[in-house]
Write a structure and sequence with these properties.
Shape: globular
Distance between the termini: 53 Å
Strand content: 15-25%
Structural class: alpha+beta
């Protein structure tokens, strides 16, 4: 808690504080100035610079000259809550404001103190694209040496450090056995099961001449040892039956080695009540699909373990609901990674040694591929893409939705992936974006192969659409009302005309495949089975999708 008397004695540089008179009309984000060097002398500019100094205070309403007499400021008066929200919106840091008052003569003068936290580890904050630092009375662009020292903070591998005091006796026998078994299955090395433990740990660089590493603790340590040496290595799973519920219905903490913990966490998540099956109907068969995919959840949790900042307190938190799951880990994205490039940039895990050992055991395919697998699984199962939009500079959060949004797309992707062994995530994304008619997001290099195999076709209006295979499981095709190729033309004709197409437009869409008379009969049949529904009269009749426009339905099994 600040006091005016205490503030008067502070030195700007030594005490990480910036004083501004700011009596009236002080700019928040550059004001009306056009010169970039002048624009940065504003509230946001100083907040950025102070955060880059590991935090400090911006004091408004006190003179810059020592001992900083009170002059009063009306900046953000009555709007400090909105000020805090706006700074968070722009910089993703949470400031805390204080309003102090001093009576001078007949005037009650106000002082606003903005308490600025430190920037995230390994990341320099920017104002209008420029990382700022305070130099004397100026705000200047951060020099190369300072900037390099900041981004290098993430480079040292915490998991490769020696955990002083950790002994082989502190390692868990079940975790060691699981690691041996995974290496044997992955590498085909029979002798790994009888190799002396000291040699095995040395070969994996989990042990050096100086002692055991933190990676050994994280992967193999007993719960008691983890509690003693690294208590923040904790995964908490909470279940809530609704999104409005504040209190959790069930909660469990897992402070155990990764090699056993990942299995136990999934067993807890994968209970019938919290991971119900979804019915996907593909007449005459019914497919049962779990709400949450084991591989997707496992990859998300392992990603959280190897990318979390172990220098920040806070648990890895798994919030589970019937329809979604959110997995959050402390520490923002690694340097150079953001939501926009998460699939294309080569990320560097904060716990590199730990990631390398996990990779060697086959618990993950390859470091950096976990996000690819999550995206591919969600697309293969007709679900929403993993959502990282809740992430900020202090945490990474991924939301996994349970719902299969389009059962026909699910069935179509099951067919495609059963025939194709080498579908990469970018081809999978092409399927997803074409299905959602987002031609601007396609990866062009992979389209020719998809066209050649008939998975997609060119379209005069949408450019690319899903091929006949998408429609083979639809009810009109299953019951013999029409062929998949005919239904494809009908479907995209209705879509092209905003959900309502005339018979004339459908006749044009099916030209070369069916005669006008055949098209009219097909429209009537599709209305009979509920795939289409008519509205309007005579020449104004239009056809939209009916209640049975999708043969497959999804339901949660209780």
């Amino acid at each position: 808690m600040s006091t005016i008397e205490g503030l008067k004695t502070l030195r700007e540089r030594e005490d990480h504080v910036e004083f501004k008179e700011a009596k009236h009309n002080y700019p928040f984000a550059g004001g009306k100035k056009s010169d970039p060097r002048e624009r940065r002398h504003c509230v946001l500019g100083y907040v950025v610079a102070l955060a880059n100094e590991r935090g400090g205070r911006l004091v408004m309403g006190m003179a810059d000259a020592y001992p900083h007499e009170v002059v009063g400021s009306d900046f953000a008066e009555g709007e400090t809550g909105a000020l805090e929200d706006e700074i968070y919106l722009r910089l993703s840091i949470r400031v805390r404001t204080e309003e102090l008052y001093e009576t001078v003569g007949k005037n009650r003068l106000r002082v606003l103190v903005i308490n600025v936290p430190s920037r995230p580890l390994g990341r320099a904050l920017r104002f209008e694209g420029v990382p700022l630092m305070r130099v004397g009375e100026s705000l200047r662009e951060m020099d190369d040496a300072e900037y390099h020292s900041i981004i290098s903070e993430q480079d040292p591998d915490f998991s490769a450090r020696i955990c002083n005091g950790l002994r082989i006796e502190d390692l868990d026998d079940d975790a060691i056995g699981q690691m041996r078994l995974l290496i044997k299955e992955r590498r085909g090395r029979q002798g790994i099961m009888t190799m002396p433990l000291a040699q095995l740990l040395s070969d994996l660089r989990l042990a050096t001449d100086e002692g055991l590493t933190y990676a050994a603790l994280l992967l193999l340590g007993k719960s008691e040892a983890i509690t003693k040496y690294l208590p923040q290595h904790n995964v908490v799973v909470e279940y809530r039956s609704t999104h409005d519920t504040i209190r959790y219905s069930a909660r469990k903490e897992f402070r155990e080695p990764v090699f056993t913990g990942i299995r136990h966490i999934w067993e807890y998540i994968n209970q019938p009540a919290s991971n119900p099956l979804i019915h996907v109907m593909d007449m005459p068969r019914i497919l049962d699909v779990p709400s949450f995919n084991q591989e997707t959840v496992r990859e998300a949790i392992l990603n959280a373990c190897i990318h979390r900042s172990l220098q920040m307190t806070g648990d890895i938190l798994v919030k589970q609901y019937p329809d979604m799951m959110e997995i959050t880990n402390p520490g923002g994205f690694p340097y150079g990674v953001n939501i926009g490039n998460i699939l294309t940039v080569n990320s560097s895990p904060r716990s590199r040694l730990m990631a390398e050992v996990i990779e060697k055991t086959g618990l993950i395919e390859r470091s950096g591929q976990g996000v690819d697998i999550m995206y591919a699984n969600c697309i293969r199962e007709g679900r929403c893409l993993p959502d990282y939009s809740r992430s900020d500079d202090y945490q990474v959060s991924v939301v996994l939705k349970a719902a299969i949004t389009d059962p026909l797309f699910y069935l179509f992707m099951q067919d495609v992936t059963s025939r194709e062994e080498h579908l990469n995530v970018f081809m999978m994304l092409n399927f997803h974006w074409i299905h959602h008619k987002r031609q601007d997001r396609l990866y062009e290099d992979f389209l020719p192969s998809m066209l050649e195999k008939g998975y997609i076709t060119e379209h005069p209006y949408f450019k690319y659409v899903l091929g006949e295979g998408y429609f083979r499981h639809a009810s009109p095709v299953n019951v013999g009302v029409c062929q998949a190729a005919h239904l494809q033309r009908i479907y995209y004709c209705v879509e092209q005309y905003g959900g309502k197409a005339s018979s004339t437009q459908m006749i044009e869409a099916l030209a070369g495949l069916l005669s006008p008379k055949q098209v009219r009969k097909l429209i009537a049949d599709l209305c009979t089975v509920g795939y289409l529904a008519a509205s309007g009269n005579a020449k104004n009749t239009r056809y939209g999708f009916g209640i049975n426009n999708c043969a497959s339905k999804t339901e949660f099994l209780e």
